[in-house]
Each structure stands twice: as C-alpha cells, then as structure tokens.
Amino acid sequence: MSDVHIMTGNTAAALGAKLCQVQVVAAYPITPQTSVTESLSQYIESGELRAEYIRVESEHTALTVCVSASTVGARAFTSTSSQGLLYMHEQLHWAAGSRLPIVMCCVNRGVGAPWTIFNDQQDSISQRDTGWIQIYCRDNQEIIDSVIQGYRIAEAVYVPVMICYDGFVMSHTMMPVDVPDAEMVSNYLPPYKPHTILCPEDPRNINPVLFPWRRADSEGVLCDGYMEMRYKLQKALDDSREVIKSTNQSFADTFGRDHGGMLWHYRTEDADLILTGMGSVANEATAAIDALREEGFKAGVIGIRVFRPFPKAEIRDAFKQAKAILVFEKAISYGNEGALCGELKAAFYGTDIRLPIHNYVVGLGGRDVKAREITEAVRASVGAIEAGDIEPNPMWLNCFTE
Amino acid sequence: MPENLFKVNIEEYMLPGQRACQGCGLSLAYRYVLKALRESTILTLPACCLTVLHGLYPTTSVAIPTLNCTFASTAASASGIVAGLNALNKTDITVVAIAGDGGTYDIGIQALSGAVERGTDFIFVCYDNEGYMNTGTQRSSATPMGALTTTTPVLTKQQPKKDMLRIMEAHDLPYLATTSPAYPIDLYDKFVKAKRIKGPRYMQIAVPCPPGWGYAPKDTVRMGRLAVETGIVVLFEIENGKFRFTGRSKTLAEKGHRTPVVHYAERQGRFKKMNMEQLTQLQRWVDTRWNEYLEKAEG
Amino acid sequence: MTKKDTSISAMAKPAVGEAGKTGDWRDLKPVVDQTKCIPCVKKKSACFLCWLYCPEGVISTSIPVQIDYVYCKGCGVCAEECPAKAITMVHEGADV
User: Fold this and answer.
1) Is C6's Cβ below 8 Å from some Cβ in A?
2) Which domain CATH number covers C77?
3) Which residues of A touch B55 (CB under 8 A)?
4) Cβ of C71 and B16 within 8 Å?
5) Of A264, B79, B194, C80, which residue is most buried, by most CB within 10 angstroms?
6) For chain A, which ranges sit under pLDDT 50?
7) Residues of B in contact with A218 (CB under 8 A)
8) Å between B208 CA and nearest CA of chain C
9) Do C14 and B12 touch (CB under 8 A)?
10) Which of A164, A188, A212 is the last residue of a domain?
11) What is the pLDDT of residue B1?
C-alpha cells in the first residue's frame, strides 16, 4: 500500500524522524537544513509528534542535548549542515565515544572560508574520523528510509548514525516519496534500550577520565584503559557492516525498497569503466552512464552508500572486474586527494586490483554537476588512460585552474 | 546514631580517599551540596577540578549519578538530561549542572545563558575558585584584579572580576544564591531550598583554593570567612526578584563593620604583586557593591 | 577468576579510596586531645566543628571524635577550627 507525496528532502528527513517517534529534538537553524527544524517544530507544537523540542542556542548545544537525552534513555534527533556540523565537532567525537544511538541528518553544504551556502560534502567528509556511521543518500526516498534504518542500526550497535544528503540539490528539490506507514515503522523499530545507566538506583560516573593503562575496580575486575574503550568503538563499527546490510534487507522485506546496503550498482554487470561517488552526484552519474552506453562505452556506476564503516570487502568485490575507475567527489582532503579516491586505492592494496584511477573534484560550493559534464570527463579520462595516464593528480571539474 | 547538632542530612555522598587537594574548599562545599540534594539527583559536570574529585575510571568517589561532559557544555548537558527525563515522564529527579568559574563565566557562558533563557528546570552551580585551577592556575574572567596567575605572571590580572551574579540576575530567574564553604549550614539550607523550587536556579559558591591562591591548606575556612567579613563575598539570595542578605552578611549589613580588603589580600600569595591602585580599586568596588546591596535589601 | 570489563562505555562505580590511601599524602597528622575536646569532656553531642569543616568527611561525630587516618590528608583545617584547641598537628611518626 503506497502513500506517495511530492516533497523536498528536508521534509522527507523530518517525516522520517517523526515516523521514528523521536523523543527529544534539539536543532539549530542553518541553511540549507533549516526547514527540517521548522517541520519538526510544527509537528511537535501541533501535537502530531509527542517529543521535547529544545530550541538550543547553538549546534554545539544541539548535539550535547542529544547526547545527554540519549544517555538518559530518550531517542534523540538533530540535523545540521556545514558550519553547524563543524561547530559540534567535539561533540561528534563525544557521542561516538559515549556509544549513543543518535541519528543526525547532515544536509551537505560546503565550508568556509570563504562562505558558501551551497552544496558540497566537505562538511561530513571532514568528520569521517569521528566514529559515526555515515550513509549518503541518492534521492529523497532514500532519506526517509535511511532515517528509519538509521535508528534500527544505531540502537543495535550503539554507534551514532549520520544521514547525509546534498543541500539544495536534494534538501530543496521536490521528488516523489512513498511515505512508510506509521504503524509499520513502529513495529519495525524496537524500543530504544539504553546501555547507559544514569539513575539514582545505580549511581555511576559516566565518561570520567580513563588512564592509559587498565585498572582494577573495587571488586578486582580489571577494567579498560582508554585504548580498550576506543578499540571497542572501532570493533562496533567493524561489526556494524553486517547490521547495516541485514537492516537494508529487513527494510526491503518490510517496506519493499532496497537501497543497496553498503553500496549500489547501476549497469555494472559487464562494465569495464566504473564511475563512483556518493550522494546525488552518483545519481547524476547514472544519467551519464546511459548516454555513454549509447555511445558504446561499457560503463556503470557504483554508488557508495555507506562511507563509514568503509565498505572495503564490498568494494574489492564490486570493482574487481573494472578496467578503469573514475571517482567523482564533492570534497577533497586538502594536501592529498579526494577522501573516497584515497580510501578506494587503499582498499585495493594487498589485492590484484591494479588499474587506472582518475579522481575528479566536482561541484564545490554548489557548482552544478551536469550529466553531460560527467560524460565529457569520462571521454577525456578514457583518452588519457589510453595515452598512459594511470593516476593523475585530482582534476577539478569545470573549474578555472590556471 | 549521634544527635544531629547541625540539622543537616548526615549521609556522606562524597566517599573518603578522593583526589582533591588537601584543604580544598570545593571538597568541603561539595559535601554539603550533596547532603542537601540527596539521592534523587543527577549531576553533570565538565572537565574541571570536580572531574578529578569524582575520580578516574573504573571507580568514583561520589555516590550520585553523574554525567561528564565537554568544557563548554555543562548547562547544555543538563538541558538534555531534563529533556530526556521529561520525555520519559521521570519528573522527580533534580538535575544539577556544576562547573567551575571557567565553565561558567568563560567557555560555559553561552550554554548557561541559553539554558536559563529557555526556563530549563535545573540548578546550575558555579564553584568559583577564581581561576582555571585544574590546569594549574591560569587566569579566568573570575580572577580578581591584581592577582598573579600563570597567564598573568608578571603584570597581574588587569581587569576587574566579571560580575557574573549581575549577569545571572539579569536573566530574571526564580532563585539565585551565593554561598561559601566557610558557612556550610547557610550553604546547605540554600541548596535544600533550591531543590524545592522549579525553573532555572543559579547557585554560586565562593571557593578558596590553597595552591591557586597561595595560602596554607589549614586556612581554607578562615580564608572563606575573611572573604565574607570584607564583603568581597556577600552571602545573599534573590528569590523571585527579592534580595535578602543571609547569615554573616546579614549580620554585617545590620550592624557590623566590614574588614578592610587589605587583610584578605595580604594573606594570599597571588596578591603579592598587587599595587596600591588595584587594592584601592578593589576596596572601592567592594564598598560600592555593598551599598547597592544594602539598597536592594531595603527595596 | 578474572571477570572481564564488558561495558561498552565508561561508567565508574562508587567506592572508597579512588585515589588510594590518601592518608599517605600527610606530613602532619591531627591528634585529638580528649581532655580538651568538648564532646569528650561533656560526654554528649556538642561542638563537632571538626566534623563540620573536614573537607574529606573523615571525622566522625562519635564520642570520642574519631579521625579515619587511612584517608585523612592532614590538611589541618580541623586543628585550625577547633574552638577548644584540642587538635594538634604532629609530624607523622612522632611520639604523641
């Protein structure tokens, strides 16, 4: 039974949170995320969603409120972009280290200086080391579905989840979205069972200082040093891959939509040339592929849906038949290359996969990325590869670089 | 069980063998803060001396549920606990944020102002030892003028102490009180009262610090008393806008004479480079504020 | 025999002596003269300012007053505040 509405990505995100019956929302306005905050205020003040809405005075506070509310046992939600995400940076580390199942939408926007209000993924990509699961959505349907999956994953593995989607391109663009049935979502999401104990019945001191070494408690149990506790976070992220995949499957079984788990394929069955990226640029690449196929290229797209934990095994498997890879990314790890490109290359290390990889930096600060530009880049790269250019420096697409 | 002379909860929530310095003023104050708040409390605190007093994993010296948070976020952390408890319909627990002067006056001020402005139902406690003491005595905006700190090591602090009490008063909250570990019963009574009040409550504790201020640990209570005797620290409460002196300050307001501030400053190593102009300015500031308080008490 | 720390985040439990036997911090130790201590002399609850002002909470309201020397840090506040001058700070190891 479908319930399709045309809606913006931000509406999809807010509806997702509402369907998950989040209990505490703390969010601060920032372009292009603001209407998520506004929609949630509307749902809560009108009584459609029974939740505490905290009109915080900053993003740092927004995530802090989610951290402590989640610690107490409430399902917490926030969303932000760009500078807001950067402002809450220390709390991102804190939330992951606290092992709290917070879900946050990051409406991708470039970072200053200088100012931009438009889309790129530098904001979330630059947070990849914080210990959050990161899912990049390709369309508005995936946003609402991923918020729901996000809570199921987060509350199973006790790792916070960031649902990323491109600012303006998706946040403000209307697309058809089949809204999942509220009762079905309610049944799909078990109630949140906090692992944290913050109550008078069992007084604990949560997240104190840990020594570099392990230390016995008053009962003689040898308890973790800082490094063990942090190892547990890494292990949780490693173990979350299976949970992410099984959640994708159970969601598909329940709601009828499969978003690919860790990554998705488009016309890759016999592809020599693979285009890859995250979010809407990967989606746009599918249109480029259709055009290229018409011209006789055997090309396909692998969309990286989950960037953290990094889908190393899935990538080794997905790309093993490729003869060349083009990575299109809306971010760069300054001083090196695109983060996805670099991590892709690292994933191939230790295997037999040795092939040309071309890295395109695209769409920074909202510069439009059209399918025909991707197609042109592919033709140029194919030519360059034939001439022996295996691994050029990152190329900035449609950017004046002289 | 011995008769309770002082009419305070005799339970000790702060267990012996904790990490605070010898003669720590915070340690003494905290005993009474916790006695007043009792078990139905959740604390949240940032990186500060109290973090150390609470102890390192896997043991804690304080038998009250506590959530540690980042330096800037104490009041925000409390806001989230309140929100979470409300969402879960657990409304019989007092949420208390407690931070030092750094986490209140400086890095913590934004979150504090925000939480209070939103009418958050919590108690914010600032234990003011007039510097960043946990990191070894750096200057904060709460450090008095003329004090030596490691970041004002030659010239002394040039600016007067920030008037945080006036800032918090301007938020028009239901209850604001100043306290001192030198007057533990006055402190205890105010915290008992605060626990019963709804809405944002701000409590300040004037905490002497032996290593930070440069005096012998045995003199902590005496130093706290002297602060009150001079009027540098004034014991009062403002309840729904009504100002009231309490305890020793009330007596001083009615009939005593305040001790000149020089007798306080000369007993602390941090003031050894204080010059006459700074001392005079301090005395003038204390006198002016005292008179303002006298007027408020009458009105 | 050795239990494992299975918690996924750090939640410390209350116990005495987190910082070890803080009595080891002392140079000077408070000694109570029961002939001067007011509750001792009166044989009833009285004074107990040492209990009130101890920053560690290691003095008991018993008669005679008892100091937990395992944890007493020797700060000297009790000696300073005792109105009967019944507490003297003596060097560790000195004959009392």
Assistant:
1) no
2) 3.30.70
3) 205, 208
4) yes
5) B79
6) none
7) 59
8) 12
9) no
10) A188
11) 43
Name the architecture of domain B25-298: 3-Layer(aba) Sandwich (3.40)
Q: How far is CA A181 from CA A3, A80, B182, in A?
A: 8, 26, 62
Chain C residues 13-52 with a CB less than 8 Å from chain A:
13-17
Asked if the structure places residue A285 within a domain, the reply is: yes
The neighbours of chain A, by the rule of 3 or more Cβ pairs under 8 Å, are B, C
Same domain, A48 and A171: yes
The verdict on residue C51 lying in a domain is: yes
- pLDDT tens figures, B174-211: 999 999 999 999 999 999 999 999 999 999 999 999 99
**A292 SS3 class:** helix
Pairing of strands B201-206, B175-179: parallel
Domain range for C43 is: 30-91
Q: Establish if A202 belongs to a structural domain.
A: no
pLDDT band at B3 (very low <50, low <70, confident <90, very high): low
Pick the last residue of a domain from A188, A214, A248.
Answer: A188
Give tens-digit pLDDT for A148-159: 999 999 999 999
The answer to whether residue A402 is domain-embedded is no
Q: Does the pLDDT value for residue B4 go beyond 80?
A: no
Specify the number of domains making up chain A: 2
**Alpha helices, H only, A295-367:** 312-318, 339-348
Residue-number span of the structural domain to which A313 is assigned: 263-396
In a domain, C3, yes or no: no
- Total count of domains within chain C: 1
Nearest to C11 among A206, A220, A221 (CB): A206
Report domain extents, chain B: 25-298
Residue C13 inside a domain? The answer is: no
**Which one, of B157, B138, B135, B159, lies nearest residue B271 by Cα?**
B157
d(CA A298, CA A281): 19
> Which ipTM value was assigned to this complex?
0.97
DSSP string, B78-135: HHHHHHHHHHTT--S-EEEEEEESIIIIITTHHHHHHHHHTT-S-EEEEEE-SSBTTT
Picking from B23, B24, B59, the nearest residue to C15 by CB comes out as B59
Rounded to the nearest angstrom, the minimum Cα separation between C30 and chain A is 28
CB A146 within 8 A of CB A137: yes
Burial class (CB in 10 A: 0-12, 13-18, 19+), A240: buried
**B-chain residue closest to C78, CA distance:** B218
Contact between A151 and A23 (Cβ < 8 Å): no
Answer yes or no: is A253 within a domain.
Answer: no
As given in the structure block, the two tokens for residue C14 are 């209350």
Instruction: Look at residue B5 in the predicted model and tell me its pLDDT.
Output: 84
